[in-house]
Write a structure and sequence with these properties.
5-stranded antiparallel β-sheet, Peptidoglycan synthesis regulatory factor (PBP3), Domain 2, alpha+beta, 2 domains, globular, 4-stranded antiparallel β-sheet, Beta-lactamase
């Protein structure tokens, strides 16, 4: 970005509010939360900070680490150690050839504990080493009441999370395209085995068919944890994430929670008083470049406290290329940043040819700009 002195502008807001239903909400879960998937703000909560076991919703972290590990086309050979685990399975056997991509889908759709163990050993070398990576990632994300012991979610006294932490983990994980694509798939046809052969896995998450706009995320169950569920919906520009831990009526809980969350979000358009700015261009074939600040749509349960800070240079040097980043618009709510957009050049401005304009004129323009500091 061309830079010198920065202009700071606070933009007044125009707000378009959509009404919503504020009826009380109660669910069957020991711990529950609904958050705004865009901002992370809590829309509904019920014992959201209670530390509870989370069963196979653990695999959200395992799947995230697999996606961040990358190279999903890599093929590995399954060992006996990898599949020596109880519970749900994607059907892996020692000697099978399987890609990391297929492990991701076996993990998130079939909830394979064999897939989780295999991922742990491939990435961490051992399950304890992988658990450390899980906990390191939890700290990086800012989860304060979560501790991982297993990659699958099998019961352990020191393996726990909270509804709120799990929602924030999901918000983070859903930003990964590979992860979001997997958890939003109702089924997947994969190719693994010894030799590999085609087979189809069905996603355990019924909400993908039950709720319009559902994009994931993960089911879980053990006798100790009870029924655990994480879901997410994107509809009409709004995005909500719901979590229940130990909820006997989880499917209905989530249908209710998701609708409540969507209805609670208002769409607020942040529009500046002035949407057009001119930046002087030094040594360019044009003396100024115009930039447009487009309105920004914020999804929030609140309508107050919004501001937009515009950062643009006092002048720039030619040449300027269309699409070049000239500045940024930072959107805040109550002083906390919630979004940031780049401000781009909308045209090319070539370097001025000397025969068109003598040097003293260029210098004169520069001095004129400098006097305005």
């Amino acid at each position: 970005m061309k830079k010198l002195l920065t202009v700071f502008v606070i933009i007044s807001l125009f707000m378009a509010v959509i009404p919503f239903n504020t009826a009380a909400l109660s669910v069957s879960a020991k711990g529950a939360v609904v958050i705004n998937g865009d901002t992370g703000e809590i829309i509904f909560s019920q014992n959201e900070n209670a530390r509870l076991p989370m069963a196979s919703t653990t695999k959200i972290m395992t799947g995230l680490l697999l996606c961040e590990y990358g190279n999903l086309d890599k093929e590995i050979t399954v060992t006996d150690q990898m599949v020596r685990v109880e519970g749900s399975s994607m059907g892996l056997l020692p000697g099978d050839k399987v890609t990391l991509h297929d492990l991701l889908y076996g993990l998130m759709l079939a909830s394979g504990n064999d897939a989780a163990n295999t991922v742990a050993i491939v990435i961490g070398g051992t399950v304890p080493n992988f658990a450390k990576k899980m906990n390191d990632k939890a700290k990086e994300i800012g989860l304060k009441n979560t501790n991982f012991v297993t990659p699958s979610g099998l019961d352990d006294e020191n393996h726990y999370t909270t509804a709120y932490d799990l929602a924030m983990l999901t918000k983070y994980a859903m930003q990964n395209e590979d992860f979001a694509l997997a958890v939003g798939s109702q089924s997947a046809t994969l190719n693994y085995g010894n030799p590999p052969y085609r087979r189809t896995l069905i996603n355990h998450n019924k909400l993908l068919k039950m709720v319009d706009g559902c994009v994931g995320v993960k089911t879980g169950f053990t006798k100790k944890s009870g029924r655990c569920l994480v879901s997410a919906v994107k509809r009409n520009g709004k995005y909500v994430i719901a979590v229940t831990l130990n909820a006997p009526n989880d499917w209905q809980d989530h249908k209710t929670m998701l609708e409540y969350g969507l209805n609670s979000i208002k769409q607020t358009e942040i529009t500046p008083k002035s949407t057009s700015y001119k930046i002087p261009v030094i040594s360019g074939e044009k003396e100024n470049i115009s930039v447009e600040i487009k309105p920004f749509l914020i999804n929030s349960t609140e309508t107050d406290g919004f501001s937009c800070e515009i950062y643009l240079p006092r002048f720039i040097y030619a040449p300027v290329k269309r699409g070049e980043v000239l500045g940024k618009a930072v959107y805040k709510q109550n002083g906390k940043m919630i979004a940031e957009n780049e401000i781009l050049a909308e045209e090319d401005i070539p370097l001025l040819k000397q025969e068109k304009k003598p040097f003293y004129k260029i210098l004169e323009n520069f001095l004129h700009i400098a006097q305005n500091f």
